[in-house]
Amino acid sequence: MSNVQGRKRMGFKKTVLAIGLLLQCLAYANTSVAGAELPTASVAKYHAETGYYTFKLGTYEITVISDGTVPQDLHVLLKGAPQQTVDGLLNQVHLHNPVEASINVFLINTGNKLILVDTGAGDFFGKGFGGKFSERLNKLGVKLEDISDILITHIHTDHTGGLVHEGKAVFPNANIYVGKADIDFFLDAKNQNGVNGYDKAYFQQAQTAMQPYVALDHVKPLGGEQKILADFTAYPTPGHTPGHYYYRLESQGQSITFIGDSVHVEAVQFPHPDITITYDVDQPRAAKQRQAQFAQLAESSAMIAAPHLPYPGIGYINTQKSGFTFVRAEYHDRQGL
Ligand SMILES: [Zn+2]
Ligand SMILES: [Zn+2]
């Protein structure tokens, strides 16, 4: 971390530092404690301005944009495990119920197109709970009309909510790729009053989020495995929802797989992939799907991108004696990404 130039300058730096400290002491001596101003406003400002992480994947540039975090009461939400088991797993990683879940949105720059994977919660969770994505996209200088394609992992409000604002399409020129089985399930008028006790709000919110794009004829339903948009492969992974899809992007021998809601709680569902969450439309199928897909992703050492793992949610899956573990991708922050 040091270089010759840095060592030579050390003496000068120390002198500057000493003068700085002396001036600071003098300044404090002239300020009463009650009059001292803490930099809380600027700290909050910096916090609001975080939420971007960019890296290269072959010829593509991927930016993970945080839509915010939301608290999750795992005692209520998780299924298939006693509360003590869940609390024990959380304690091992210094977490306590309720835990914060990230909502990560992925922006992919192909060089001539801007593509999204999911869109965050939009306005649906209320102010302060998700919905930061579109403003952050704006700050990047990306115009909403410049988004050409959106790959939806599944029609749940925290993934499709950002598609609309005040009933209008936020991305008027975008094609929306989404599993046909999710369209059939969530947009079916018969299901609007709820199915098998599944929260009916999902169906109403799905209708609100998707309808403007149905009206524009911009929805591209997916069935089976198919190649889309040059280097993407879309493949069905039903369970969490009937039309849940993974998207694998390959470029120059590298790949990343966007795995949607195959996992919500890192500390619990990697070691115990059998533990499900109340959001799963089909609990046993969601657990089986997670087990099968994670085994395959671990086997192939594939990089994954997950919306609800702690931001930015990029890494790898390893197998362990029983279950799996998540390994974060290396952090890069220098010129050239
Ligand atoms: Zn979901
Ligand atoms: Zn989700």
TrEMBL record:
Q: Which residues form the signal peptide?
A: 1-29
Domain Metallo-beta-lactamase, chain residue ranges per copy:
102-308
Recorded superkingdom: Bacteria
Q: Tell me which SUPFAM superfamilies the record gives.
A: Metallo-hydrolase/oxidoreductase (SSF56281)
Establish whether keyword Transmembrane is in the entry: no
UniProt cross-references to Pfam families, sorted A to Z: Lactamase_B
**Any keyword Transcription?**
no
Keywords, A to Z, come to: Hydrolase, Metal-binding, Signal, Zinc
User: Can you tell me which residues the record assigns to a coiled coil?
Assistant: none
| Stored InterPro entries | MBL_superfamily_lactonases, Metallo-B-lactamas, RibonucZ/Hydroxyglut_hydro
| PANTHER family membership | QUORUM-QUENCHING LACTONASE YTNP-RELATED (PTHR42978:SF6), QUORUM-QUENCHING LACTONASE YTNP-RELATED-RELATED (PTHR42978)
The family annotation for this protein states: Belongs to the metallo-beta-lactamase superfamily.
What is the name listed in the Swiss-Prot or TrEMBL entry for this protein?
MBL fold metallo-hydrolase
Originating species? Methylophilus glucosoxydans
Q: What is the lineage of its organism?
A: Bacteria, Pseudomonadati, Pseudomonadota, Betaproteobacteria, Nitrosomonadales
